[in-house]
Known about the structure:
Blueprint: E1 3-11, H1 15-27, E2 33-36, H2 45-48, H3 60-63, H4 79-92, E3 99-100, E4 104-111, E5 116-123, E6 126-137, E7 161-163, E8 178-182, H5 186-195, E9 201-206, E10 212-215, H6 220-228, H7 231-255, H8 257-272, H9 278-281, E11 294-297, H10 300-306, E12 310-314, E13 317-320, E14 324-327, E15 332-334, E16 337-340, E17 353-356, E18 359-360, E19 368-369, E20 373-374, E21 380-382, H11 391-411, E22 416-419, H12 437-441, H13 461-470, E23 478-481, H14 491-498
Parallel strand pairs: 1-2, 1-6, 2-3, 4-17, 6-21, 7-16, 8-9, 8-16, 9-12, 10-11
Antiparallel strand pairs: 4-5, 5-6, 13-14, 14-15, 17-18, 19-20, 22-23
Amino acid sequence: MSIDEFDVLIVGAGISGIGAGYYLQRDLPDHSYVILENRDAIGGTWDLFRYPGIRSDSDMFTLGYAFKPWAEEKAIADGPSIWKYVNETADEYGIREHIRFKHRVVRSSWDSREARWTVEAEQDGVVKRFKAKFVLMAAGYYNYEQGYQPEFPGAEQFKGTLIHPQHWPEDLEYSGKRVVVIGSGATAVTLVPAMTDKAAHVTMLQRSPTYMVSLPSEDKLANWGRRNLPKHFAYDLTRMRKILFQQFFFRLARSRPGKTKERLLALIREQLGPDYDMETHFTPSYNPWEQRLCLVPDNDMFTAIRDGKASIVTDTIETFTEKGIKLASGQELEADIIISATGLNLRMLGGAEISVDGAKIDTGKCYAYKGSMLSNVPNMTFVFGYTNASWTLRADLICEYTCRLIKYLDDYDLASATPVMEAPPEEALPFADFSSGYFRRAEHLMPKQTSSAPWKQNQSYMHDIFDLRFGPLEDGVLKFERAPAAAPASAPDRARELA
């Protein structure tokens, strides 16, 4: 079987993978690379999700790439506009020609004797093999094949339509229908106002409230700058303004949670009036930014509630019935369509198996080095964005860091770079300081962190600029091999070493 060889192999052609292609071409123009994409299209999340109202939950000045200005009027963009932006980027920089579509990566194996990764991908049932000196995992953080669907009691009794937003039927007709959306996260908050244009009524059924904050969908100052200033200068200026505000608000929420909570709830009360039951429906039990805030563009969610087109019910499900959902309180919500906006199934590295010299790597037992590499795994970086800011901010920095590292290996004729944790830390912390259900469900799959660098996740863009873009590569933790290492005596021995 023939094996295609490249300097760098990227997994995933979503917003992160396309960005990685740009940085490789910019910083390492003499290096060959390939992007393996599981699906048959570019765009990742923005090609997969097709539900009504699909949009970003971050402004496009920070969700967009640092190198390609966002030129649309709306700062909070709809899914098709983001899909178009990512595809334009791939075509503008000649990245599309490097993509192999319908290649599902199932296994990546490092061989120290060769100092190479062998990556196996399935295409239409046929296994294809690739070799690369370096692998960049940009496959996102959730399972594209299946969203998270709880086992609802009595679901088989329901005579209407039950769907998950990740698998939205193209022909779903909801005009004049009663719709219940289960969930209180970003997807639910997007769906509810978007479906009120046709539905008879939309009810958001939540077990507990989520913090919401409204922002204008258009940034007037940014649009003025785009019309009156040089394009890249205006974009960079707006981007930095947005970043500083995001970081300021996050730090404020963490340092003064009580005051932040009061202000967030006061803004919603201004929209819904003094008689609305804020305590039941909009007051979470946790502090702001312990879970991600839900963005409400132009107050659309609150307007729909105020106009009587949508409502919120806070309760737990006892059972599904033929006509809808019976709640623990005894109330029955009748529905023609029930949408289970219950979240994602997280997974690491696109769900592929990883091994080093025959020893399988358990990502849940690894530690994250600079939030971009796994302990004791050579020549591999992975993209995992911020939980408190736009995904692409961190993706850009990790791609730049990857190029820096590869160039360093080349310049000094080095074969590999491996973050090595010499001894187990006194305290192992979760990868993300986040209490959201989808993080808790996947905690066993996520690498761990510690309370000190370089094994600490800072969730700080400013810190990461200095660390990933300018920080020294030789820090005593990242170990370099000048020549391919000798093969270990046996896989079990290597497995014990990695453990």
